[in-house]
Amino acid sequence: MVMAFRRKKPDALQGTLDLLVLKTLSGGPQHGYGIATHIEAVSDDTLRVEEGSIYPALHRMEQTGWIASEWRVTPNNRRARLYRLTRAGQKHLEAEQEKWDRLTKAVGKILRFA
């Protein structure tokens, strides 16, 4: 699955990408490539987040105040922008994860009983 977002209005996939990014950052600061790699690895290569999707999403989430960033030098002596979850982002993550849990539970029921 390739997650690509071209529209400006929020949609289900964009909300899903936000949720995945926020959840990834709840484990600690990461750079954009690290976030995308983590999502891909944890999903057993089912979800692949393209560069054209991750960086606009990170920028948008930083503007909303859910994440913050700063430039740092990595262990291999390269400059990278590291993103971290803010308090507002943690609250948003909790609310969205609760909604996602309710949604997947409801879809699961329909798939079992339809």
Q: Into which percentage range does the β-strand content fall?
A: 15-25%
Q: Alpha-carbon distance between the termini?
A: 26 Å
Radius of gyration: 15 Å
Poorly predicted runs are 5-11
**Helix segment tally:** 4
What helical percentage do the residues reach? 55-70%
Number of strands: 5
Strand order of the largest sheet: 2-5-4
For the biggest sheet, the summary is: 3 strands, antiparallel
Based on Cα principal axes, name the global outline.
globular
List the secondary-structure elements in sequence, H or E.
Answer: EHEHEHEEH
Structural class designation: alpha+beta
Mean pLDDT: 89
Ordered list of secondary-structure elements with their pairings:
Layout: E1 2-3, H1 12-25, E2 30-31, H2 32-42, E3 48-49, H3 51-64, E4 67-73, E5 79-85, H4 87-113
Helix pairs in contact: 1-2, 1-3, 2-3
